[in-house]
Predict the 3D structure of the following.
Amino acid sequence: MNSKFIMNKYIRLFLGITIFSLPIVLNGQGTEDTEVNTIFQAIVQVKNDSYAIENKIQPWMKKNLSTGLGSGVVIGKNLILTNAHVVMDSNRIMIRLNGSQKEYSARALFIGYDCDLALLEVSDPDFLEKSKILSLSESLPVLGSDLLILGFPNGQEELTLEKGSVLRYEKSRYSYSGLDFRNVIKVNANIKPGNSGGPAIQNGKVVGLAFQISKTDSELGYLIPIDIIRHFLKDIGDGKYDGFPNLGFTFQSGSPISLKNGLKIPTDESGIFVNRIYPNSSFSNVLKEKDFLIQIDNLPISSEGEIVTNGRRESIIDFIESKQMGETISIEVYRAGKKYQADAVLQKNFALDLYRETPDSFFQSAGFVFQPISRSFFNSDDGDLDSSIKYHYSYFIQDLLYRYTNRDIVLSYIFDDPENFKYKKFKFKVVESINGKVPKDIEDFKRIWGENQKNFVILKFRGMDFQIVLSSESIQQINVRVKKRYGANYEN
């Protein structure tokens, strides 16, 4: 059964027109045992057997089998909502209902890495018969109100109920992607590993999903709020997950009158000055640097980049991210003293895609391992990272380094070998060129290497005066020794 058929079948359930509702208030008031048991049968434990590389910057190493445990909530017939990080790298996903030892096989239908959400499906009809369904809340919980967080902390077999209270709504970095800032609910609750993917319930409905814990206070945790969950579920309605649109440009306050005068903008106009526009982003074809943006979707923009919608003030960043990919946005700008209007179609941000993980992409030959720079380098235990790596990674877009290559490539590892031992100082250096050519990406690097390895491969690195020069004979001899000593093939 294809995913589009599944979504057409269940999308009305997701959007919460009505799934299942319980007349239960879980903020300190009494409840009937039958109602509580109904909720209990909507919470599941998720077991994920996966093969993952132990060291992300050594991707040629064998993958180890590991088992992770999390939680989830049934939101549709045989459909379970959980965290993306609970089912990452999954080889086998098993689901267990509370109070039962029977495990059901599940598969991941959709995974949203940028919002840490995943939708699973269980095909066994017995699961449908024994499980219950919870509906999604139509609104956010009130500040200070109580809620109940359900899940299986620390892999425990029995369901645990944790009472919490809503402390604050804020925008925070989602640690799973390490890149995306999204809305979160900060709660006073003792959430532990294993609670991930478990629902927070108020008035019998799901108001959020547990996904992060505080690093400094064991009594603080974070929930993915219902608006992010609904965005995810609406997104997958067409059978694929696109993600959240991103603003795609930087801006500064539109208050300075002198700057307005210099760019021929009426001093009484409110808006923001556009600075850097990211390539291949939603507005890259309609905005220019020094544009003065005054409206978006016919909504006036303040000098600090805020708009008023539905009686509340929000940033244009939040406004854009609340939309779906493919939606059309209208803008109005001043440019060189003249007013212009244009439409833009929201799309993925090329800049952010560059910074996402690509740990399995590498090239290995002559005892060297080359990889695209990714966050894996900064999460590793290797303390020998070159500072230039951090610069080229962090400022790849801001400093227009993408004009030269789609993604920087680094010499990430050197196998011990008598012939390449002298090149140890090149480890973690960024490749500037191979045989005089700047490789666009790792595939281009492989191609250039292959075209020249019958003669000489010449490698130049940024910040290094000397080059690495490898003859065809040397490459072959090193490959034989490395494979014999370490069992590592010469390429992936």
About this structure: The longest helix spans residues 472-486. The longest strand covers residues 63-76.
